[in-house]
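Subject: design request, 115 residues
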Protein backbone atom coordinates (compact mmCIF):
# COMPACT_ATOMS: atom_id res chain seq x y z
CA UNK A 1 0.00 0.00 0.00
CA UNK A 2 3.02 2.32 0.22
CA UNK A 3 2.46 3.62 -3.30
CA UNK A 4 -1.32 4.07 -3.15
CA UNK A 5 -2.32 7.72 -3.37
CA UNK A 6 -5.53 9.39 -2.26
CA UNK A 7 -6.78 11.97 -4.77
CA UNK A 8 -9.47 14.32 -3.50
CA UNK A 9 -11.62 17.14 -4.79
CA UNK A 10 -12.15 15.45 -8.16
CA UNK A 11 -14.79 16.66 -10.59
CA UNK A 12 -17.62 14.12 -10.61
CA UNK A 13 -17.03 13.53 -14.32
CA UNK A 14 -13.45 12.25 -13.80
CA UNK A 15 -12.94 8.71 -15.09
CA UNK A 16 -10.42 6.08 -14.09
CA UNK A 17 -8.92 6.33 -17.58
CA UNK A 18 -8.46 10.09 -17.15
CA UNK A 19 -6.64 9.52 -13.84
CA UNK A 20 -4.48 6.80 -15.39
CA UNK A 21 -3.52 9.15 -18.23
CA UNK A 22 -2.79 12.00 -15.82
CA UNK A 23 -0.67 9.98 -13.38
CA UNK A 24 1.18 8.00 -16.06
CA UNK A 25 3.08 11.22 -16.84
CA UNK A 26 4.88 10.65 -13.51
CA UNK A 27 5.29 6.88 -13.47
CA UNK A 28 3.75 3.49 -14.03
CA UNK A 29 0.11 3.41 -12.91
CA UNK A 30 -0.82 0.02 -11.50
CA UNK A 31 -4.43 0.91 -10.74
CA UNK A 32 -6.84 3.83 -10.60
CA UNK A 33 -10.17 3.61 -8.80
CA UNK A 34 -12.76 6.39 -8.69
CA UNK A 35 -14.97 5.82 -5.66
CA UNK A 36 -18.68 5.89 -6.44
CA UNK A 37 -21.86 5.95 -4.42
CA UNK A 38 -23.11 2.38 -4.11
CA UNK A 39 -26.72 3.36 -4.80
CA UNK A 40 -26.54 6.03 -7.49
CA UNK A 41 -23.24 5.04 -9.07
CA UNK A 42 -22.17 8.72 -9.13
CA UNK A 43 -18.59 9.62 -8.28
CA UNK A 44 -18.02 10.66 -4.67
CA UNK A 45 -15.30 13.10 -5.76
CA UNK A 46 -12.27 11.11 -4.69
CA UNK A 47 -10.14 8.27 -5.98
CA UNK A 48 -7.13 6.08 -5.27
CA UNK A 49 -4.25 5.72 -7.71
CA UNK A 50 -1.49 3.17 -7.19
CA UNK A 51 1.89 3.74 -8.81
CA UNK A 52 4.85 1.37 -9.11
CA UNK A 53 7.42 3.02 -6.82
CA UNK A 54 7.63 5.40 -3.88
CA UNK A 55 9.68 7.78 -5.98
CA UNK A 56 6.90 7.93 -8.59
CA UNK A 57 4.36 8.51 -5.82
CA UNK A 58 6.35 11.42 -4.40
CA UNK A 59 6.86 12.91 -7.87
CA UNK A 60 3.13 12.69 -8.63
CA UNK A 61 2.25 14.30 -5.28
CA UNK A 62 4.74 17.12 -5.83
CA UNK A 63 3.57 17.82 -9.37
CA UNK A 64 -0.19 17.34 -9.04
CA UNK A 65 -1.14 18.53 -5.55
CA UNK A 66 -3.03 21.80 -5.94
CA UNK A 67 -3.31 21.65 -9.72
CA UNK A 68 -6.68 22.11 -11.40
CA UNK A 69 -8.65 19.38 -13.11
CA UNK A 70 -12.03 20.28 -14.55
CA UNK A 71 -12.09 23.52 -12.59
CA UNK A 72 -11.36 21.91 -9.21
CA UNK A 73 -8.10 22.01 -7.24
CA UNK A 74 -6.78 18.47 -6.59
CA UNK A 75 -5.46 17.03 -3.36
CA UNK A 76 -2.75 14.44 -3.97
CA UNK A 77 -1.81 12.57 -0.84
CA UNK A 78 -0.17 9.40 0.32
CA UNK A 79 -2.37 7.54 2.84
CA UNK A 80 -0.60 5.86 5.73
CA UNK A 81 -2.18 3.63 8.37
CA UNK A 82 -1.86 5.39 11.68
CA UNK A 83 -2.44 4.56 15.31
CA UNK A 84 -5.57 2.62 16.18
CA UNK A 85 -8.00 2.54 13.25
CA UNK A 86 -7.38 6.16 12.23
CA UNK A 87 -6.05 6.93 8.82
CA UNK A 88 -3.43 9.63 8.90
CA UNK A 89 -2.50 11.38 5.71
CA UNK A 90 0.97 12.54 4.73
CA UNK A 91 0.22 15.36 2.35
CA UNK A 92 2.50 17.27 0.08
CA UNK A 93 0.85 20.35 1.54
CA UNK A 94 -2.63 20.75 2.96
CA UNK A 95 -3.48 24.20 4.10
CA UNK A 96 -6.02 24.44 6.86
CA UNK A 97 -6.69 27.93 8.15
CA UNK A 98 -3.42 29.19 6.73
CA UNK A 99 -1.24 26.48 8.28
CA UNK A 100 -0.17 23.03 7.15
CA UNK A 101 -1.86 20.21 9.04
CA UNK A 102 0.02 16.88 8.75
CA UNK A 103 -2.63 14.92 10.74
CA UNK A 104 -5.89 14.70 8.84
CA UNK A 105 -8.35 11.89 9.46
CA UNK A 106 -10.43 10.53 6.62
CA UNK A 107 -14.03 9.48 7.05
CA UNK A 108 -15.04 5.84 7.40
CA UNK A 109 -15.95 5.57 3.72
CA UNK A 110 -12.46 6.71 2.72
CA UNK A 111 -10.91 4.23 5.18
CA UNK A 112 -12.96 1.34 3.75
CA UNK A 113 -11.54 1.96 0.29
CA UNK A 114 -8.00 1.30 1.49
CA UNK A 115 -8.72 -2.23 2.71
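Subject: RE: design request

Done. Sequence follows.
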Amino acid sequence: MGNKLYIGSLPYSTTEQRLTDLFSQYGTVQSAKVITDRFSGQSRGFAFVEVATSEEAQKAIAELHGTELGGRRLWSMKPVLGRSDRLVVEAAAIEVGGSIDPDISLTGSHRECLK
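The CA atoms of residues 17 and 54 lie 22 Å apart.
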